[in-house]
Amino acid sequence: MKYRAPTSIDEAVELLSAHPGAEVFAGATDLIPQIQGGRPEPSLVVDLKRIPETVRLEAENGFWRVGAAIPAAVLTAHEGLTAAFPGLVEGAGLIGSDQIQGRATLGGNLCNASPAADSVPPLVALGAEAIIVGRGGERSAQVSEVVIGPSATSLDQSEFITEFRIPAPSRGSSDAYERFIPRTEMDIAVVGAAARIRVDGDGRCEEAAVVLAAVAPTVVEVSAASGILEGRVIPHYSGRDAFWDELGEAVVACCNPIDDKRGTAEYRRKVAQVLARRTVVTAARRARETL
Amino acid sequence: MTTTRTGYKWVGTRPVRHDGLDKVTGRARFGADYATAGMLHGVVLRSPHVHARILSIDLTEAAAMPGVKAIITGADLPDIPDETGTGSEGGINFRDLSRNILARDKVLYEGHPVAAVAAVTLRAAQRAAEAIEVDYEILPAVLSLEEAMEDDAPVLHDDLFTLGLDSPPDRPSNISRRRVIARGDLDAGWEEADVVVEREYTTKAVHQGYIEPHAVVAETGEDGRSTLWCSSQGHFAMRTYTTKVLGWEPGDMKVIPAEIGGGFGGKTTIYLEPLAALLSRRAGRAVKMVMTRSEVFRATGPTSGSVMRIKMGARRDGKLVAATAWMAYEAGAFPGSPIGPGVMTVLACYDIPNVLIEGYDVVLNKPKVAAYRAPGAPMAAFAAESVVDELAEELGIDPIELRLRNAVTEGVRAVYGPKYRKIGFVETLEEARDHPHYSAPLGPWQGRGVASGYWFNFGGETTATVSINEDGTAVVMSGCPDIGGTRAALAQMAAEELGIDVHRIEPVVADTHSIGYNDMTGGSRVAFAVGIAVVDASRQLIDDMCARAALIWDVPREEVEWVDGRAQSVTGAAAPLTLEELASGSGATGGPLSATVTVNPRGAGAGFSTQICDVEVDPDTGLVTVLRYTVVQDAGRAIHPDYVEGQMQGGAVQGIGWALNEEYIFDRNGVMENPGFLDYRMPVASDLPMIDTVIVEVPNPDHPYGVRGVGETGIIPPMAAVANAVYAATGKRMQDLPMSPVRVLEALSGD
Amino acid sequence: MSRTHVTCVLNGDEIDFLCNDYQTLLSALRDELGMIGTKEGCGTGDCGACSVILDGQLVCSCLVFAPEVEGRRVETIEGLAEVDHLHPLQDSFLEGAAFQCGVCTPGFLMAAKALLDRNPSPTETEVRYGVAGNLCRCTGYDKIVRSILDAAARMSDPERQKEAT
């Protein structure tokens, strides 16, 4: 296995085009354990972190551009990003320990294509776009379209993500992410849920997105959530309001979980409802606080 | 020898440990930190199947690969007769040990070693191992205790006939042994009981979880003499076991102990050592072998999974009058679960007149279990202490009060035979009852549980040497690896005796060629047994030095006494002689000052612990959070209280992990699904509160300072304490470990 | 296969080494440079025993390819103490009995240093999460957490700092 660290997009695309067995990486927090676990080693690994576009972080023209190879620790320390997308930063901040935070990236978290990736539900809920470069030039895709199944993406062999473009939040809009793990740290999400809520001047929900992790082969959006929550003033979950049951049913309808070493399908269905409620409440409270 | 004093200068203080600086600077050398010039790297080829016959092994391609220097398989190890040796953690069968190290005709678990390769680089060795072709015939596997104990179960060993049955069996089975303990008249006991509780409990296999993987460097010379550098809980045992498996002479092997990065019982046996030594002999070069974490999980440790049925009866006044226990422990691929200590400890806390305990040692297609901190006792206590908690509730008696009414005390005959000597169980219960924790308020979905535990502790064969340097400093030498501060404790006892500063003493863990035999660091024995030897050696030295002062002063020996590190004339006839003066002039008074003592002491002093646990349960997710935890334990005498507390805290937290999340998870083919720290969920710092400790000191009359073993007892009560707390918080009795969120939420949904 | 020449700043000194591209930083430190203070407990980033600080960021050196550190700053346990005195964390760990076997200790010290560099007066909870990526099986963490809190107090108290030196 050889290692290369190109300093431009063109150089990287050239390397990937020339080496069919090449793979890109940024934090290597998934790649190295997978090799340790017996996955065949790529013939070439291409380190994306020295390409300027992949480590850029800025807001411009109504969008945030977040480099795909920025370590989570940098994202969580960024005040502007945290203010704009608290849920995304929560998700990024939950990828592993402090040590992992020093390495793990949004691009890697997405392209590892695990249904349990913590930063992916908030990216999807936020309507983020991935900027993808490759032999065919640059293209963009909705984050929700990048992963097509466990360990499988829609990117071709020469392609990689340079950055994410995320619409800047409007007034009255915010997000939240929560996951469940059996310990307090170091685990992969058994279930995760992100919510983005926009409220009107009276604090009523105008638009909602709820996205779940680890309950299906890919992260899934609860498409019925917006309809259920629209027009509601979202309080703390009390169990009395019927719409919470509707949301719960909508969540369960989206779940297609499995029994595995981290939890049972039944457990995931139950806890997905719990986390969906909790993140909706948090996102709505944050949204009202922006008014 | 049994004099005890109070007002010690060093015993009971908290000096910085002698090996501390090396360990905070990265200089300490652990198993994998050794290297020699030109050494080869060895790897193990392991079975992908849980139960299969090895039809053939083809080494042709692997042996021809570049850089490959030696390959060995089971055929390269001698046949060992079916005999059992002893060690501080119980018997060991060398034929089974040999077959666990390299499979012969059958593989018996996923990860069972099939071959080992040494090559010039680790990569070359790995590639060669992959190129070894093994032809297997898959056999039906036995993956649970229930399956293994069925009459028509596939049998792992054709020559395994159950021991301990009333009539000898006529065919082999997976049950290697039945252990029975009985006393009294059960029928009468049940007759007398007003309240009876009977429950079944299960626990899963759990790993010791030491952070340092097994590692060894072996160098075997052309003359067949070899040196091993390895981390273990006892390098003498490593030598005995390794040479036994190889058919070599123990005297031809020197084992140099590395610092040990955690053991908890799991490093009391061998895995890599004979492979590295034999590969080195074949290749004519040193060979280094280090396990991956996945190998550690799949092929070392763990301790037994278990099924237990406990029935206990009490009178209305709280007196326990009858109990039965039926217990089956997984041994893994070869006989030897800790069912023995399991049946002996399960009811050992209580004075119950009518008892029947029945235990089974069962083989199945899982890794062979190894000792784990108080082997066999924690799961037994989970079951028994849960039943005691239920009885307390049924009787309307406070659970500590119920335990006090039945607690064993000095002179009471233990259920497994001997009478207890001086013990401190009642004192731990009283301290727990009176601790502010026990009466602190609780919030909603919070609950409090208590549980107790008993451990024998162990003495064992021991050699220690104390030598005085010419400047009056001292060396305290033993042959027991220091896992958690025993160097400091031994130095403190020597300092107390000799009357010199503890930091003028250098405690040393000597190799197998530098000191006499020592049993392993296990059974919570080092501060006790090695402590006795060090104190004895120090007292011999003092006697010698007093005699030399008498010689110098030309007075009778009786007129010299040792006070504060000096020989002093009782009559005041001469100015005192300091240790330095006696040491620097020792050539003129009889030669160097050194004393060696060997002991095999009895009376290790039983240990008891009572623990209080508060939890909060999230009713939406089933998550159990430990809010507060207090460990009360009888240490006899805490030589270095920091490290006594450390043993109590560490044991409790291992037990909390066992209670909440740790378990071996196997797929339907018996392949371990979580052989890594990501999904084998040991507690992390953010999972826990501070662990409060109360050291009870009921001195052990058989140790000069009153020491009892403290290493193991702390892990026994936690699972029951947590389960009882979960019950108090939720009204649900958790009878299966671990109490993972999935299980707890299932229980909460069961209304 | 030809080896890669890597130059970096290790504990303040510019050094260079040769490695295979597939080697991790952990392997390069231990096997190429003989810096055995950084330990391997799992090789998959789950135990923290191999923690080092890379350009100011705490990382598991088992999850970094060795060639990645070209031109970068690496801090390991061997660089924590000054010539004539220990780092306050090392003093606190010694005095607070924050380890038993000691194999996780270098990783804990590096994680604690990274935490205190970022947050000089952490709460108990912040300390617990700050070292949640480091497994210790011996201590139950109690004395480790106390020692880190103690070191933070020492470092923020000029009197105690003077005393220590």
Compact description:
The complex is a heterotrimer of chains A (291), B (751) and C (165). Chain A contains 12 helices and 14 strands.
Report on the structure:
- The complex is a heterotrimer of chains A (291), B (751) and C (165).
- With 291 residues, chain A is of the alpha+beta class.
- Chain A has helices at 9-18, 31-36, 72-76, 79-84, 86-93, 98-101, 106-111, 120-125, 143-146, 225-229, 242-254, 265-289; strands spanning 2-4, 22-25, 44-47, 57-60, 63-67, 129-134, 137-142, 147-149, 152-153, 160-167, 173-180, 191-199, 205-213, 220-221.
- Chain A folds into two domains: 2-167, Uridine Diphospho-n-acetylenolpyruvylglucosamine Reductase, domain 3 (2-Layer Sandwich), CATH 3.30.465.10; 173-289, CO dehydrogenase flavoprotein, C-terminal domain (Enolase-like, domain 1, 2-Layer Sandwich).
- Chain A is built from twelve helices and 14 strands.
- In chain A, the strands form four sheets. In chain A, strands 4-5-10-6-7 form a five-stranded antiparallel sheet. Chain A has a four-stranded antiparallel sheet with strand order 11-12-13-14.
- The model of chain A has no long low-confidence stretch (mean pLDDT 96).
- Chain B has 751 residues and is of the alpha+beta class.
- In chain B, helix 10 links the parallel strand 16 (320-332) and strand 17.
- Chain B is globular and about 85 Å long.
- Chain C is of the alpha+beta class.
- Chain C folds into two domains: 4-79, Ubiquitin-like (UB roll) (Roll), CATH 3.10.20.30; 88-164, [2Fe-2S]-binding domain (DNA polymerase, domain 1, Orthogonal Bundle), CATH 1.10.150.120.
- In chain C, 36% of the residues lie in helices and 15% in strands.
- A five-stranded mixed sheet of chain C has the order 2-1-5-3-4, with helices on both faces.
- In chain C, a hairpin with a 2-residue loop joins strand 1 (4-10) and strand 2 (13-19).
- In chain C, helix 2 (88-95) crosses helix 5 (142-156).
- Chain C is globular.
- The termini of chain C are far apart.
- Classes of the chains: A alpha+beta (291), B alpha+beta (751), C alpha+beta (165).
- At the B-C interface, helix 1 and helix 19 of B face helix 2, helix 3, helix 4 and helix 5 of C.
